Amino acid sequence: MAMMAPFLKYGTFGEETSLVLAFLIGIGFGFFLERAGFGSARKLVSQFYLNDLAVFKVMFTAIVTAMLGVTYLGWIGWLDLSLVYLVPTYLLPQVVGGLILGVGFVVGGYCPGTSVAGTATGRIDGLVYVLGIFAGMFAFAELYPWLKGFYLSGSGEALTLPGTFGLPYGVVVFAVVLMAVGGFYGAGLLEKKFAATGE
Amino acid sequence: MNPYLAGIGLGVVLLAAFVLVGRGLGATGAFNSIIAWAVSSVAPEHAQSNEFIAGYLPDDGSSPLKSWLLFEVVGLFAGAMFSGLLAGRAKVTTEKGPRVSVRVRLAMAFAGGVLMAFGAAFARGCTSGQALTGGALLNLGSWAFMMMVFAGAYAVAYFVRWQWR
Amino acid sequence: MPGWFSRLTLTQKLAAAALALGAVALFASPYPGTKVTLDAKELALIVGTEADHVEATELAAWIIESRADYRLIDLRTRAEFEQYHIPTAVNIPMNVLTEAGLGRQEKLVLYSEGGIHAAQAWMLLRAQGYRSAYMLKGGLDEWKDQVVFPVFADNAGPDERARDERRRSISAFFGGQPRSAAAVAAGSDALPGVAAPVTPAMPKVAAPSTPSGTAKPPAKKKKEGC
Prior knowledge:
Chain B is 69% helix and 0% strand. Chain B is mostly helical. The relative contact order of chain B is 0.12. Chain C has ten helices and seven strands. In chain C, helix 5 links the parallel strand 2 and strand 3 (89-91).
């Protein structure tokens, strides 16, 4: 079976086409985000008040879907998984960044992708959130010389769970699926308990 | 839409990105590209000397706006608008609780955005790029990040619940 | 579909499907191994038409023109590379070639001492999906003979003289010097033990030394993040 994907990396098409694809893929992305109701801050934060755990359900279903997809496509040799870009791991800043991001999520009611979705469906708070991101990112850039040390702390290697824990890839995949399905079941129970108060 | 079906849809889109272009989704980078473009238009030397911004300026001098993520985010906007209009969920409004003023809610939204920016900068991404993309690829840093996002959000949610009451 | 399956709700069906796929995935090995597939017919065709070759004189012209649309790769050892290498070449020994992060659509020109290693590397790269790999015909040996120390007939006609001038200036560009045909012929007849006219030592690399197709690809790739 000939390895042909990722197509861009095999030279099937060039950068210009990849930008067009970016736009089309983005449409799909935005479409399903909004379909899930994530253009609304209220829906998003409901996750953290336990009355509507759609964020968890959507996110992990997407993760499991794509994860199974790359696993199978790589297994049958259609996709060269080693050519798919893996963001390097800088553990400490990512952990701290995650915390800050979580706080920002629940304070503002959106995350970067959903804030764009919210703005696209008329949410003024979404738009203001976007402005906040610009302001914050600009501030970060200006403060970068002082933040650089912390920002770069870590190995900067592309690390995976199977690699780090010395487990076969398939075992981790199965574990993630188990965890997700278990989580969905638990989410259903939590939702029943903290039923949504009007929505 | 059933969250699981929406999730599958999202997952297929993500998979398409992996297969077609060899990368995942994202959002934060688009904001950075815009900032890089704006700063380099107004103060080019400052942009070049700032290491963070310079990272978003292509070496060959082409516009930072020609970025994959930027095109993707524009598509995001379009796709979301389309879905919202289709579902009748599109209306100009400020989401907030009944006992909170618009001004306060917007201030919180702005503050949230600022915090989010710092978080995403340190983490090299946000829920789209790190959690979704890195999650699917079993990226170590992404999973750690994901857990911390939930931790941080749950920890603080109680203290800002008044926004929605 | 078994009866019990159709009585589940949609959500439960999805969960069952996910668990089934996950269980099968337990045995998955998604990364490509080291085995490759070769299309013998396609490769034979390419080899036959010599579409994969780059002449030494062609390469010399590209270097002089400062073309940046290709990467020149020296497959020899570090020591050999430091002693002399074609200007603008980067040293990637054969054994680390596939880990060097070369783009599969990048134009690569490979050379080795005589061309055998370059041919082997070419085959390996093509097998792994690199579509734009080329070999320097004749390797470094041809480079010396054609470009750096070109041989001129001693009694050249007017047309040949014009061409010789060009080759002379190319040779000078790379720090070499021409040799006369007579001297070379005499040298090759020398018997072992008799001192033969020594081929001039390779010039120090003074010509453009910035590696071709420089750091740009890695820098741009940063934008693959989020």
